[in-house]
Write a structure and sequence with these properties.
This protein has three helices and two strands, in the order H-E-H-H-E. It is mostly helical. It has helices spanning 2-22, 60-68, 76-86; strands spanning 49-53, 100-104. It has a two-stranded antiparallel sheet. The longest helix has 21 residues, at 2-22. The N and C termini lie far apart (67 Å). The protein has a domain at 33-104: Membrane-bound Lytic Murein Transglycosylase D, Chain A (Roll), CATH 3.10.350.
């Protein structure tokens, strides 16, 4: 009986790891949510974006933080919205190694 329980528990753990690596655990943004495209966005088209080819281990946040050389001056939710807007709805968790994507450049706020 113990062997069956250990086998089932092992299968659950393996499936959880597989699901985490393939799908991810970040909550998906609803397709019905509207992406703001007003002038209040901190990103202006064409002038404040760069294109980067994805390498193994890259994430949207790691690329942006490396470019910014530190913490980003905007919320993660804003980064997700801007990335999706610049890449025709591609979600950050769906980026592919070897593909090139547009990334927003955030300017530090000066008060």
């Amino acid at each position: 009986m113990k062997k069956i329980i250990v086998l089932v528990a092992s299968l659950v753990v393996l499936y959880s790891v597989y699901h985490d690596l393939t799908v991810g655990v970040l909550p998906a943004i609803s397709a019905n949510s509207t992406v703001q495209q007003s002038s209040s966005l901190p990103v202006t088209e064409k002038n404040n974006l760069f294109t980067e080819k994805i390498k193994p281990g890259d994430t949207v946040l790691s690329i942006l933080e490396a470019r910014q050389q530190g913490a980003l001056p905007v919320a993660i939710e804003q980064v997700v919205k801007d990335f999706e807007r610049l890449n025709n709805g591609v979600k950050p968790e769906q980026i592919q190694i070897g593909a090139s994507y547009n990334f927003p450049i955030y300017l530090a706020e000066t008060d």
